[in-house]
Amino acid sequence: MTIPVVKLVTWQQAHDLYSNHHGWLQKWLYRRLGNTFDAADIAQDVFMRVLTRRQPSQIHEPRAYLSSIARGLVVDHWRRRELEQVWLEILAVLPEPETPAPESRLIFLETLVEIDRVLDSLKPAVRTAFLLGPVNTN
Fold this sequence. Notes:
The protein is built from five helices and no strands. By secondary structure, the protein is mainly alpha-helical. The model is unreliable at about 5-10 (pLDDT under 50).
């Protein structure tokens, strides 16, 4: 059985896009995040998304294209930070014996982020119905 090869963005396209716009994108992200490390991480994520696109496209407005991807990643970043902050506040008030191990903390946080992502993808009425629906404790 042969696995079909999915054509990705060509390396030359990716190289040109990265060379010509990475510095600009990182500065753009820094202005929104105020942190060079987060800006660098998200810039890297933007280019990884470009590289792994299933359908390469001609990018006529590279900065608009890159900033559109980056905006979504910045929103995800702030949402994750907000969830992480709430999780840390919950942990801070737990009695010592009930505090989960570091591995469990990370698993819980990742699960919260995933649940938030799924809930956010639902239509508002569906999300509200789900959140207000009865809880089965059996």
